[in-house]
Predict the structure.
Amino acid sequence: MGEFQPGGHSSGQSGLPGRRSLLAVAAGLVVTGLAACAQQPAAAPAQPPAAPAPGPASVSTPVMEAAGQHPVVPETRPAPPSKSQVMAEFSGRKPVEWGLAVTGVVSKTASTHAVLTFDACGGPQGSDCDQRLLKTLRKLNVPATLFVNGRWIKANPGLAADLAADPLFELGNHGFRHQPLSVSGRSAYGIPGTSNAGEVYDEIMGNQEVMERLCGKAPRFFRAGTAYYDDVAAAITNALGLVPVSFTVNGDGGATFPAPTVASEVGKIAAGQGSGHIVISHFNQPASGTAEGYARALPILLDRGVTFAPLGDTLPL
Ligand SMILES: [Zn+2]
């Protein structure tokens, strides 16, 4: 993969016919600067919840959300395979790709909308909440997909419930321990990744269970800690019924960019009216330039006709 500027990139704005093509577009994308996602996993994370027993062919979600008791439209989704089933199917497979946009990971959508995604990585330096950023999104009525790590939820149960109950936001799974998703122990930004198919299962489904209780339904989207995957781990994610997600635009460089840089990087999506873009930033670093950068960029993008949607409205079921 070639070098890539931290600011992300934009290409192939139109005529994206489908998921298979999206994956092709995604190949070769390398973005640096995800420092906020590069925090070490918690020193002594709790064990993921016990894997649910293999269920029936389909399961129905609860009809009430855990937070706020809002009714939830029942949906039927295939029950995910068990941990033992995942290990049996994937343990013998050798990964051939490693990075931010490997086969099976979605980096773009075919939508005319732009998707803003914000991660909350958790951990000792990553469990705060950027309320100013959330206030800006609410004030401008700009929807977003929030990828939330299990450690962050544990540190912010009330906030997590509030976000789950806010219709402006869609919550995605950002892993249980915030590990790069590998079946061979590959590392990213110095963080050791999961080391086998069973650990991949735990990283995904440990937080999935937490979030299902929080949201009243299972998240559909997953972003690995650091956003690094290998192709086998990406395949496991898909097999578990989640879409592994990367990005096209690195909006805040892991919450390291000053506000003017955030504004200019996010502002790049204006060139394509936002179409198809997935922008990554963070909402767990209130001392960063992220909130101010978005406060500057979003009114301009809205004036230019850019529209925003959560991932769930832009990717086919
Ligand atoms: Zn992260």
